[in-house]
Every structure is written in structure tokens, then in C-alpha cells.
Design a protein that fits this description.
Layout lengths: L6 E4 L4 H12 L5 E2 L11 H11 L3 E4 L7 H6 L1 H21 L4 E5 L28 H25 L2 E7 L1 E3 L12 H14 L4 E5 L5 E2 L1 E3 H13 L2 H7 L6 E4 L5 E2 H12 L4 E5 L14 H5 L8 H14 L2
Parallel strand pairs: 1-2, 1-3, 3-4, 4-5, 5-10, 6-9, 7-12
Antiparallel strand pairs: 8-11
Bound molecules: NADP nicotinamide-adenine-dinucleotide phosphate (NAP).
The site of NADP nicotinamide-adenine-dinucleotide phosphate has 23 residues, from helix 1, helix 4 and strand 6.
């Protein structure tokens, strides 16, 4: 990767895309190109092909996607599968046609089977049934990995194609989505505890038993991991992956219960009331932890611990109010 390479970051206004742009800028990459959703709709093949043939970037970070929590996934399954498939197919194919040699596709840990062994290794992909609530989104993400692998297999040698994929665990950080219904667990809890604090509410009720364990990674760590994976020599990347299992997990390697998470967020926000768990509501999978040893062996470890990351996130939430 040369510092003058023209790099297109798709989804640069999103939580991860904006962090990737900052990391690239901090590392001295000076030729980053971006387009807003309204300027370039990535589900539109004609617009995407025109953009790539005019701009001809050298590298692409594909961080644009239709993203949301369980409620959004269950309510809008058609949007999740259609938009994500279209974005990936359009961007990856147009990138290939315009001569892009390197591309990084961002997937998600929900590609893995619901009952995968924990911690979940990369080779658990396609070994079992998916979690039904986000199956359409997961299928689209699996298709994104397979698109990258198929272009590598068909055109890797002849055209020098090197398209990689990373699978992040749950992400959080500045720029997250705080929508009351469509958000993920950390922004949802930040909003709930903050509102309870300013309204002097006596308790916050949390769905489920609080016992399921989850893993979270701060968005800046995810952005650093993405740039790290892109900068690995192709020989090293190929030695650590294989052509039909080429993705790499990005996780903290640590988990905590939803109850512990809620108590940590309560502390960060400074809320004095009680937490009540509503066990009549569903819990979801008991555990979901990624095996991050592959990325660790490739020289990368996360920096930001949860409480520090939550403090930074809450600051940015307050700033945005
Ligand atoms: N957030 C998580 O916990 C999490 C966990 C695992 C994996 N990921 C993956 O990480 C990547 C980035 O996620 P994120 O949290 O940064 O999501 P985000 O904040 O929602 O950002 C996604 C970006 O994509 C843009 N976008 C969506 N549809 C588009 C379209 N048709 N044309 C052009 N731009 C479009 C959005 O623009 P608009 O807002 O204008 O639509 C937004 O800027 C995604 O691939 C996601 O699947 C996220």
C-alpha cells in the first residue's frame, strides 16, 4: 500500500467507515475518496459502475451496508437481504471491472451458525443453521465473503486480484445509531440509562435474564484492524487463510454478561436507580464469542478496554444531543 494510493471508503459517514477514514488519514494516506449515500446509491448498478470507471480507485474498504439490531432485522428482512446483496455485488464487481486490486469487505459475526462451538473459529462458517432473526442479513454477508473468494479464485492470478474479508464482533463507539427501536444493545442501553437519569426514574427494565454473554469491540480498534489486515503481505494473508475460508475474525477475545454490561453502562452514565431484568423476554444465544487468535497471530491486538470505550462513546452521545 502506497501513501498516495487512491482509496475509496464506502460508507464513510457510518460508524466504522468514518473511523477507517480517520485511521487512514492518521497513517498518512492522502488520497481518500468518498461519496454520500445521496450522491451514490450503492444498490444502483449503473451509478456504481459509472463511479468506479470514472474514479478508478486502487483500493476499496466496503463499510457501507444496511445495519440494525434484532427489531430492525425482524421487521425489515427484505431490505436487509436485498440492499446488502446489491451493495456487495455492485461494488465488488465494479471494483473488479475498473481494475481495483485490493478490497476489504466488512462482514459480521452473525454469519456463524447459531450453535457454533465457542469461541467461534473462522472455519465454523457454513457448518450449521443460522440464527433465524437475522438470517437474511447473515446470508447477504456470507455472499459478500464468497464474492471476494470467487473473484480471487477466478481472477487472482490473471488480474492480481486480492479481495479480503473481516468479520467483526459487536461494535460500539462514537457515531453509533441511537434509534429507540432499531439500535444495537450498547447504544440502546446508553440511551435508556441516560433518559432514566435525566428523568429521575427509579429503575431501568432490561429485556431478558441479563445472563447471556456477549463480546464488544470499540470502533477505532475495528478500524485499526481493518487497515492492518489490508496492509498484510499477500503471502502472509494466504498462509493464514485458505481460498474457500478467507475471512478473519475481529474481536476482543473477552466476553461479559448483559447484566455486567448494563451495570458498567449505569456506572459510566452515573445513574443511581435500580436495574431490573425481565426474564419473561427472550435471551437469544447464551454465548457469542469470536476466536480472535488468527488476527492476534498476524500481529494485531485491540487497545481500548470496555469501560474506557463506553466513556468515550457516552461523551460523544452527549455531544450529539
Ligand atoms: N455496528 C455493528 O455492531 C456491526 C457489527 C458487525 C459488523 N458490522 C458491519 O460493519 C460495517 C459498517 O457498519 P456501521 O456500524 O458503520 O454501519 P452504519 O453506521 O449504519 O454505516 C453504514 C453506512 O453505509 C451507508 N449506506 C447504507 N446503504 C447505502 C447505499 N445503498 N448506498 C450508499 N451508502 C449506503 C450508510 O449511509 P446512510 O446512513 O446515509 O444510509 C452509512 O453511512 C457494515 O458492513 C456492518 O454490517 C457492524
Amino acid at each position: 500500500m502506497s501513501k498516495s494510493d487512491k482509496i475509496y471508503v464506502a460508507g464513510h459517514r457510518g460508524m466504522v467507515g468514518s473511523a477507517i477514514v480517520s485511521v487512514l488519514q492518521n497513517q498518512g494516506f492522502e488520497n481518500i475518496i468518498t461519496r454520500t449515500h445521496s450522491d451514490l446509491d450503492l444498490t444502483n448498478q449503473q451509478q456504481v459502475e459509472k463511479f468506479f470507471s470514472q474514479e478508478k480507485p486502487n483500493e476499496v474498504y466496503l463499510a457501507a451496508a444496511k445495519v440494525g439490531g434484532i427489531f430492525a432485522n425482524v421487521t425489515y428482512p427484505a431490505d436487509f437481504i436485498y440492499q446488502n446483496l446489491m451493495i456487495e455485488a455492485n461494488v465488488i464487481h465494479a471494483a473488479f471491472k475498473s481494475g481495483v486490486k485490493k478490497l476489504l469487505f466488512l462482514g459480521s459475526s452473525c454469519i456463524y451458525p447459531k450453535f457454533a462451538d465457542q469461541p467461534i473459529r473462522e472455519d465454523a462458517l457454513l457448518t450449521g443453521l443460522l440464527e433465524p432473526t437475522n438470517e437474511p442479513y447473515a446470508i447477504a454477508k456470507i455472499a459478500g465473503i464468497k464474492l471476494c473468494e470467487s473473484y480471487n479464485r477466478q481472477y487472482g492470478k490473471s488480474h492480481g486480484i486480492d479481495y479480503r474479508s473481516v468479520m467483526p464482533t459487536n461494535l460500539y463507539g462514537p457515531g453509533d445509531n441511537y434509534h429507540p427501536k432499531n439500535s444495537h444493545v450498547i447504544p440502546a442501553l446508553i440511551r435508556r440509562f441516560h433518559e432514566a437519569k435525566i428523568n429521575n426514574e427509579k429503575k431501568v427494565i432490561i429485556w431478558g435474564s441479563g445472563k447471556p454473554k456477549r463480546e464488544f469491540i470499540y470502533v477505532d480498534d475495528m478500524a485499526l484492524a481493518s487497515v492492518h489486515v489490508m496492509s498484510l503481505d499477500i503471502e502472509i494473508y494466504e498462509q493464514n487463510t485458505n481460498e474457500m475460508c478467507s475471512h478473519i475474525n475481529v474481536g476482543m477475545g473477552e466476553e461479559l454478561s448483559i447484566g455486567e454490561l448494563a451495570r458498567t453502562i449505569k456506572r459510566v452514565i452515573g445513574y443511581d436507580g435500580e436495574i431490573e431484568f425481565d426474564s419473561s423476554k427472550p435471551d437469544g444465544s447464551p454465548r457469542k464469542l469470536l476466536d480472535n487468535s488468527k488476527l492476534k497471530n498476524l500481529g494485531w491486538t485491540p487497545i481500548v478496554q470496555l469501560e474506557e470505550g463506553l466513556t468515550l462513546t457516552y461523551k460523544s452521545y452527549l455531544h450529539g444531543l
